[in-house]
Amino acid sequence: MRFAEMSSRPSLDFPGAYVVDELDLEQLPRGCCQRLMVDLIHDGLGRSLRLPIMVGRGKHPGPVIGLTAALHGNELNGIPVIHRLFETLDLKVLRGTVVGVIVVNVPAYINNERTFDDRTDMNHVMPGKPDGNIAEIYAYRFIERIVRRFEYLIDLHTASFGNINSLYVRADMTNEITAKMAYLQRPQIILHNSPSDRTLRGTAMELGIPSITVEIGDPQVFQARHIRASLSGVRRVMAEIGMLPRRPVKTGPQPVLCESSGWIYADRGGLLEVLPKPTDLIQANDVIAQQRNIFGEVIGEYRAPHDGIVIGKSVNPVAQTGARILNLGAMASPHKNPFYVRLEDSNPQLENHPLQAPTLENLAVQ
Predict the structure, then answer these.
(1) What is the tens place of the pLDDT at every residue in 270-319?
(2) What domains does the chain contain, in order, with CATH numbers?
(3) How many angstroms separate the CA atoms of 198 and 22, rounded?
């Protein structure tokens, strides 16, 4: 059956796009890019709410990789990563299929907010329910109609509102495939993170889809260096799984590998100044933040509970009791953890080199 014969109709809002009920890759022609609007739910007027998707099918068969952006509606850096990947795809060379879900959480994106219309964090309700509340149904249909078609997944995020991040990856580093996907991103930091039950990454992993989460900097902005570095990482993964031709690339700087991380929280309200920057290395008992009352008097300071690296931090000075201060990563020792490491990083001669997170400037872009 040809694409024109599918249950589809032209989109009235986006010329050249087609409205479909689900993603059926086998009905799409090879050697073409398609723009699709996939029906998921309806609003109170009965109007369809649709997900914008780009699909590129190469001339030759191969894996299916999915890229997802804006699962949180104000996390935007992943959108231009998808755009620029499709702008440069050579479908005559591509083996397999690339699916780019440009905006997963459409209601939140429209409202410039992180959460769904009912204040649900969509990364905490996966895989949803077929007969649940609106957020659960949305999540369920997203998984069933789209994600199940993937063979690999790269979920693109940023920090949440009021925070900033390094360029880092969350992945199960005890899984050989996802560990390699993480290293191929060449991030500043890799955080070992077993798949959570209710996240998109965790749900995909339970479906047998190797998945990583890439945290691309800060919310509600486009950051050119982060976007370039992340796009290069996506291309390296595609080359590794045989979708694009391999070419010689430089090893790139070694990322800092963390075995765990945790947010440090304010125990009172006031005006907060967080002192270290993302990727700064800090030692136990270092002062990491000062807090003042509304009259400008210093009323307290916060210290690091252990050695670590700053993965992300708050930049919102107005802090209530329980406000986030910074996300402190506990650095892993390759010899004490069952994590996969890059072969080039296992050289004993590297052990005495000072540990330092790569900067965005020295992350190789190829």
Answers:
(1) 999 999 999 999 999 999 999 999 999 999 999 999 999 999 999 999 99
(2) 16-240 (3.40.630.10), 261-334 (2.40.50.100)
(3) 22
